Every structure is written in C-alpha cells, then in structure tokens.
Amino acid sequence: MKKKKRSCAGRLLLIIFIVLAGFIGFNLFYPDVSVLKKENPKKTAFMKYREKEWEQAGKKYRINQKWVPLSAISPFLIKAVLIGEDDKFWQHEGFDYEAMQKAIEKDIKEKKFKLGGSTISQQLTKNLYLSPSKNPVRKLREAIITYRMERAVSKKRILELYLNVAEWGDRGIFGIEAASRQYYGKSASMLNPEEAARLASVLPNPRKFDPLGSSKYVVSRSRLIYNIMVKRGVVVPEYEAINEDEASDAANTPTDAANTPIEETRPSSQ
C-alpha cells in the first residue's frame, strides 16, 4: 500500500515537472520578441481585450492610435513617464527587485495577490502578449517574456514601443500621439513640461483619471513628477527663465537706459 502511494506521488511529481518544463520551454521561444526590433505590432493583446469588453458592453469604441518614433516625442514626456512609471529603467534588466519586494510586502499585509512594482518592460510585455489578469501563471509568463525581450530588444526601442501602445484614456486612446492630440490638440513632440507631467500622472489608471481633470490625485501626482523634473534640471523653473530673459534684455539695452533708476521710469501719479 505504501509503495503504491509512493508510486502515485512520484508520477504526480513527474507530471508536474513535465508540465512546468513544457510551460517554461514554450515561453522561452514563443512569442518571437525579436520581430519587435523593426516591426510595430498592429494590435496588442490588451487592445483586443478592450475591444471584447466594448463589444460585450455594447459600446462602439474604436482603437485611436498613431505610431510615432521616439525622436518625435517630447523629451519632457519621456522623462515624466520614466519618473512616474520606472525611474530605474536605464539601469535594470527588466525587473526592479526593490519595487517588487515592497509590492509583495504590501500584498501580504493586505492579504491580496497583486504583485505590483512592474517596470516599463514588464508593462510592455503584458500589453503586447498577455491579459490584465494577476494570477501567478500569467505573472510567470510575463517574467519569462520580459527577460527575453530585454536581451533581444534595445532599451530605446522598448521605451518607444511602450509609449506607442500604452492605454492613455477611456474610449480607446492608445499611445502618446493619440493622447497628446486628444487632450492638448498638438503632436507629442510639442508637449511642454506641465502637460507631460499631467499625461504621465494618469498612466496607473488612465480610464479613471483625466489629465485635464482637477482630481486631487492628478494634481498632486503631476506636481510631484514636475518638481522632480525641476530638481533634476530637466525643467528650468519659469522664474529662472524670466530672469535669464531680463538679463538678456538688459545686455541689449543702451547703457543710459539700463542705469536709469526704477523709480524714474515709473509713470507719475495723477
């Protein structure tokens, strides 16, 4: 009897091992992430997921997306998104282990399984190939494909892909170009620091928050992102720009006028 139980347990372990090995092996070769080096995906898995949602809800929304190269995206927007979504993007190899640890600790505390702390590379993998589900199997697939993508595709290309496929609002807004035109009526290359911070602030939940809205979340998060951009020298505060302009004007002003006391240039009271 004991031998029979051991035999059954051994077979079960063998089956589990074979299934797990097959699962990992499959995801080590499929999908072919190398095509992303030069090809833009026509429609992501996440877009298809949204289309099914709209169909079931009887909504006649359509995907609103326009591809643009990284060079046609405002540097302010790129910096704002990196600060808001993945500040260690250029340093890590697909995973921010410190952020993952904090997310796991939070999950344990809340007795939930969310596993947040996703990098831009992980978010791109999910958007391109997977569902929004947070189950362990999907997260394992995400990890394997992200690992492969980081080794097959350059960082700049990963960032370019992400900015073009990320969901940026309700009713099918995908990618920064569509979002920029929808909210600010201009191309993504023309976004200023404040607009960039606003757009970056809603990425965690783009269907709930509006970049143009006055919700406490959008205001505080966009202000935080903007302040970090200023602190890092990405943005020159307006008052500094004004001082520079005034200094430039003074340099081009005739000496007599430049030395005239302010009081003497004010209009006399009537």
Short structural description:
The chain is mainly alpha-helical and 270 residues long.
Secondary structure topology:
Layout: H1 2-29, H2 45-57, H3 75-85, H4 97-110, H5 120-129, H6 136-152, H7 155-165, H8 176-184, H9 193-201, H10 216-231, H11 238-251, H12 255-258, H13 262-265
- Indicate the radius of gyration in whole angstroms: 26 Å
Strand content: under 5%
Poorly predicted residue ranges: 240-247, 249-270
Mind summarizing the main beta sheet?
Answer: none
Level of helix content? 55-70%
Order of helices and strands: HHHHHHHHHHHHH
Q: How many β-strand stretches?
A: 0
* End-to-end gap: 112 Å
Average pLDDT reading: 82
Broad structural category: mainly alpha
Shape category: globular
Instruction: Count helical runs.
Output: 13
Structure commentary:
The chain has helices at residues 2-29, 45-57, 75-85, 97-110, 120-129, 136-152, 155-165, 176-184, 193-201, 216-231, 238-251, 255-258, 262-265. The protein is mainly α. Mean pLDDT is 82; it is low at 240-247 and 249-270. The protein contains 13 helices and no strands. Helix 3 (75-85) packs parallel to helix 9, helix 5 (120-129) packs across helix 6 and helix 5 packs across helix 7. It is globular and about 75 Å long.
List keywords for this structure.
270 residues, 13 helices, 0% strand, globular
